[in-house]
Recover the amino acids of this structure.
């Protein structure tokens, strides 16, 4: 299990330009390192043997060593969950496809967007580039 | 003007894994270098002073020297057109935002998708990350 978490410099020096205003002096940015916004939600824990990767952009591959870690471990097949579908999930998925990971799977009901319409539109586009999008139950049964 | 064109090795050695079957022996892949599929549509011409960049993945930034070319020229502001909205356009746009280009503009009616719904859903997601999406006319008038 590889956990990808967004954490930013409290002064915002590694934040996207379009979000930098959220990290100006006196503010605690939405996912500033060490702040509540950077904590995992209840129920998610980085356990012994898990790998925690910190990123600062939507795609987990963007300016991180994720690709080299996966290659080193001989991993070609990815199953992706999390939020939100249009941003972090989709950008990670499209980069994974561009990097020739196969199969790339997104668990339909283990990711979400601001509205169901946004979620569905993004799932549709991902299916169109060969991504599998089973529900958690369908995927679990296929592994049984 | 920078023209980004997809061209692939006729043997498919630089094609995404999920499309490799389109480039097997005896087939002419959809955008094989030198084939009709790699030509520009009527009306588009690479003119003197334009820059032609060849890419092999959705994003024009993926494994190309686009970022270094733009940085060298001191270009921070991008206006993006072409097809299709969900794939090449969107992936290029999201990478441009991740790379802190600003402003990033997509001309609403100078890009397109398989259906109007797909186009609109992708424009919606791009607006949500701060991308401007004027029509060609609106943009032209703002430059006048």
């Amino acid at each position: 299990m590889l956990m990808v978490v967004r954490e930013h410099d409290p002064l915002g020096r590694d934040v996207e330009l379009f979000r930098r205003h959220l990290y100006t002096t006196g503010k605690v940015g939405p996912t500033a390192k060490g702040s509540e916004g950077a904590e995992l939600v209840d129920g998610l824990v980085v356990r012994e043997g898990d790998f925690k990767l910190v990123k600062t952009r939507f795609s987990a591959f963007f300016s991180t060593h994720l690709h080299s870690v996966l290659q080193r471990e001989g991993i070609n097949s990815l199953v992706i969950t999390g939020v939100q579908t249009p941003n972090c999930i989709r950008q990670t998925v499209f980069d994974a496809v561009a990097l020739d990971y196969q199969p790339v799977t997104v668990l339909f009901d283990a990711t979400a967007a601001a509205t169901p319409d946004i979620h569905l539109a993004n799932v549709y586009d991902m299916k169109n580039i060969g991504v599998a999008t089973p529900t958690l139950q369908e995927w679990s049964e296929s592994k049984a």
Summary: The CA atoms of residues 41 and 82 of chain A lie 11 Å apart. The helical segments of chain A are 66-72, 85-98, 116-127, 136-143. The longest helix of chain A spans residues 85-98. Chain A has a mean pLDDT of 95.
